[in-house]
Amino acid sequence: MEFWLARTVRMAFTLFVVVTLTFVVLRTSYDPVVAMLGPDATNREIELFRERWNLDKSLIEQYLTYIGNALRGDFGNSFRDGRPVFEVIAERFPYTLWLGGVSYLFAVLIGIPAGILAALYRGSIFDRAIMVVSVVGFALPNFFLGILMILLFALIWQVLPSSGASSWEHVIMPAFALGLTLAGILARFTRSAMLEVLSKTYMLAAQAKGVRPARRALFHALPNAALSVVTIMGLILGNLVAGTVVVETVFAWPGIGRLLVSAISSKDLAVVQALVFVIAAAMVLINLAVDLSYRMLDPRTRRST
Amino acid sequence: MMSRINPITAVAATFLVIVAVLAILGPYAAPHDPYQQNLLSRLTGPAWTEEGSAEFLLGTDRLGRDLLSRLIVGLQMSVGVALLGTTIGAVVGTAVGFVSGHFEGWVDDALMMIVDIQLSLPFILIALTLLAFFGNSLALFILLMGMFGWETYARLTRGLVLSAKRQAYSAAIVSLGATSARLYGRHILPNIASALIVQLTLTVPAIILLETALSFLGLGVQPPNTSLGQILGEGRDYLGSAWWIAVFPGFLIFAITLSVGVVGDALRDRFDPTLKTRRT
Which residues of A77-97 are buried (b: 16+ CB within 10 A; e: fewer)? Predict the structure, then answer.
């Protein structure tokens, strides 16, 4: 119980800090009026704009209104087209979920089995190949991988569309660009987690009892290695979120990552604030989910608190 | 025991030395003026292609500037920003770790809470928010890169300081009358230096990737300055007509991060005592 209380307080605190910092940074660093209306705006226009977006109030007042509205899920309207921010984000969110989901699935379905096999056949050519791909996947910037794929598959061989999101074919390249690094990280960690477990004496005991290799790997080693693998599965979600910002821009994918980049370029404060909040909230929930699954998988952590 | 150097490590290390020399020489190593526009030879291909010319080894960009020369100047920027950013992050983070480990109590709690908050968010999110609104002068951009990774050093140093403080040698030094500053600077820091160096080899490629990604998005290094990511970003619009503008800087970034990773692995094997007994 205490665990949950502590976690919830910390979560709320993190979000509060994020919201406050974004507010302070965004509102004190520059004047949105100049950015939105341009240098030619008349005084009357500026005044109206300020009133319209409450920019004429004091910073404290603006902050309190902002927090109050945020708590009710109201992030105001986009400075650019006047539509509610919530609506703008809700429209883009399914695309990010779709791209992120496919990439994550790809990473998990490829990375984990590859890591398990690499550990079981340690030192084999397969093991080395997996490790090389994983190192390359880590060093290759996802935006460059994306560019290379566009060049080869869209421009030279013309087998896949280079941008947009109108069919399932559109998701292949961005999902691969996003998922390869994650699959590499997962494969690496799964491999070392498995190797650690395989060296334990209970594995030797299982072998001595005559348990068959496949059964040993799946029912004796894997559940014990699962702990560290699940932790990494949670941690790479952070990479996934960071990657979408870049990869969505490369492939002109209409998700929230690209929305964030374009909102920043056009200085659409309301949208940026809301997106930062939404992404931060998602990250905090992901971290919580990792902790939770950790406690479910490992009975020892449950007893210790 | 000195083990034989792996040939892959040797190749990676040699490549990094070349990169370092080019980065130090910068414009002096460039065959052409990297900023000289030459509209008659815009989008010239690399010398070995049909549309190429012997004058420009790797071709030219949309303004007819020599790509090889721009890559060298961009390399100087990317490597310079990465090294400066890494240094700032390492120094600040290590200092925070010492403070946290020294005072413990609420100071420690407060500092570690900041660390936790930063760790719970993808750094690119923090970077994008700050960059877009504070504008991006080069100095600010480097400071921003310095904000990356400090929390890892802070955590690492704090843990190491806490355990070193409880070692007998610390007690002996303190009872001989050494001040805390002397204890940390002269005795504990050398003891934890190898762990910090190992961490450095992980931060440098991460910052290179971060800088290039941000510059690629057009939110990092701004023209007239240039970096590898910025050249790659410009080349993106000319993929169909001039693939070389995007492809060469991309491979250069890849080769650098890969080499730093390979050399870092080798250093880790040599420096990290915990890996000596169980290597996987």
Answer: bbbbeeeebbebbeebeebbe
Query: Which residues on chain B are in Cβ contact (under 8 Å) with A127?
Result: none
Tokens 């949950």 belong to residue? A4
pLDDT digits (tens, 9 = 90+) for B126-164: 888 887 677 678 888 898 899 988 988 998 889 888 888
ipTM: 0.86
Neighbours of B98 (CB within 10 A): 22
Q: Which residue of B has its CA nearest to A27?
A: B133
Q: Same domain for A100 and A211? A: yes
In the prediction, which pLDDT does A35 show? 62
Please state the rounded mean pLDDT for residues A130-159: 90
Residues 22-81 of A with CB under 8 A from B: 22, 25-26, 29-30
Q: Do A245 and B124 touch (CB under 8 A)?
A: yes
Rounded Cα–Cα distance for residues B263 and A82 (Å): 52
Question: What's A153's domain CATH number?
Answer: 1.10.3720.10
Task: Decide if A79 is inside a domain.
Answer: no
Number of domains into which chain A is organized: 2
Q: What domain range is B75 assigned to?
A: 7-279
Distance CA A207, CA A211 (A): 5
Tell me phi and psi for residue B50, to 5 degrees.
Answer: -60, -45
- List chain B residues with CB under 8 Å of A29: 133-134
Minimal C-alpha gap between B258 and chain A (Å): 5
